[in-house]
Amino acid sequence: HIDKGEFYVDKKTKSPVLLKIFDDEGKERILISYKEFKSSKESDESLFYLTMIILQFMSICQKFIYSIQF
After folding, report:
1. Average pLDDT score over residue span 18-46
2. Which of 45, 52, 58, 69 has the most CB within a 10 Å radius?
3. CB under 8 Å to 1, separation ≥6 — which residues?
4. Under 8 Å between Cβ of 9 and 18
């Protein structure tokens, strides 16, 4: 079962870097890496909604951990 996720954002650029999703035993199950991210109003909104859809689909929103790294 999916248990929690960690979303990493670059502090300087405020761009997404990584989304890690863990099972209920703490094992990493899904890794989404954002490479060559180009920000625009449309892409920022799309990224937000896509991330929320992924989290809702996996039923982990209640345990989602938002982490800012780098």
Report:
1. 81
2. 58
3. 23, 24
4. no
Q: Give CA angle at 57 (41, 21), nearest 5°.
A: 85
* Amino acid (1-letter code) at residue 29: R
Determine phi and psi for 38, rounding to 5 degrees.
Answer: -115, 120
Distance CA 70, CA 68 (A): 7
Strands 2-10 and 65-69: parallel
* Tokens coding 66: 């938002």
pLDDT score, position 63: 53
Distance of CA 10 to the CA centre of its chain: 12
Global pTM value: 0.57
Q: Where are the beta strands (DSSP E) in the chain?
A: 2-10, 16-23, 28-33, 65-69
Mean pLDDT (the chain, rounded): 74
